[in-house]
Amino acid sequence: MSISDSQSFVPVILGGDIGTYSLAREFHEAYGVTSIGVPAGGNGIIDNSVALELRPAGSILDEDRVVEHLAALGRELTNDGQNPRPLLLCGSLDLHVMLITRRRAELEAYYTIPYVELEVMERAALKENFYELCEKLQIPHPVTVAYDPATDPAQLPADLPFPLIGKPSDSSTWVSAKFDGKQKIHTINTRPELEDLLRKIQGSGYAEPYILQELIPGGDSNMRLCTYFSSQDGVVRFAGYGEVVVEEHSPLVLGNSAAIVTAVDETVIDEGRRLLEHLGWTGFSMFDAKLDPRDGVIKFFELNPRLGRNHYYLTAAGANAARFYVREYLGAEFDATELEPGVTRTDAHGVKVLQVEHLYTVLPHHLLRRFLDTEVGVKAAALLKVGKVSNPLRYKAEKNPKRAWFLLLNAVNHYRKYKAYPPRTP
Question: Are strands 223-230 and 164-168 parallel, antiparallel or unpaired?
Fold first, then answer.
């Protein structure tokens, strides 16, 4: 292992996507440390990086194998306890975080785990529970029905508001479902189409509730997100709100934000705070939401029990996500700094709200400029013009020429994807 014994702590990140790379970059930017990445296998996003050493698990879906792999890493990184430095274990996707949380008792022997207990996580991260909470706390959300795959689809209400969006309640188990035409999110236009999809799901091995939700009109630029950090006493300390410029629409990454402009919406930030503090949430969380053009209300879709895939928008605007983890879970011995003056303002509830305007994007700027004909797009264009823009994959500390080649191929691939799968129009 190339990580020095003198490195004071080691982040271990389960996953292999851009969220994994972004978090490793953030730890490297803030502390100069190398993280261990634990993907199923390598790929261009995480290969050949100064910020990551890869230790593939072979399969993320074999839970016992992953836990054994992480335990062996824990022993190795601490030299069987002879070098008792902290190891901070993070996950990039819901399935990673749920695995870590389910197997907390075994993993805590080696790792600091910055996630809530499984019971609390399931109260909000499972979508049918989330909408019950929204109803209870009077937080705006779309009309929603949870379908049990063990029942006959014909038993669903006759007055469902088509078109519908269909999505799994538990995205961590959806990964294992197998059927023709499976997507991360389904758009369903008619009753026969709905019943056909649900019968496929019944035979797919997925047994958790499947969420059916009214389709809120509007294009990508109506999408919103807000990331929170709560201290270990269950109090929200930080919030960073973003307005989506454009999303990705190819099947494997459908719905992921490709460009985000940071902003402030006090109403949305406070609604998320109320829900999190009701739960006693700790650590990071992220809400997806959408501006409904029919009534002008931003409606909450789901709570992600972790940093989002595209959370680097926070760091780009001056609030490095890795520092929150270290300050709260490892302590002042490792980082006693505060957020830089001017990055946040404090609201009426003591929450530090990100106020710096910045553009996050994974797209080549020439391609992004094709999608700036909206109100949010105008904000993005202004930030592009003055250079207030960041791409998490473009890190000056990366010197390996293979990374430069990957960035070129990645840019070309974005052009191909957006030609084949163009964004939604307003």
Answer: unpaired
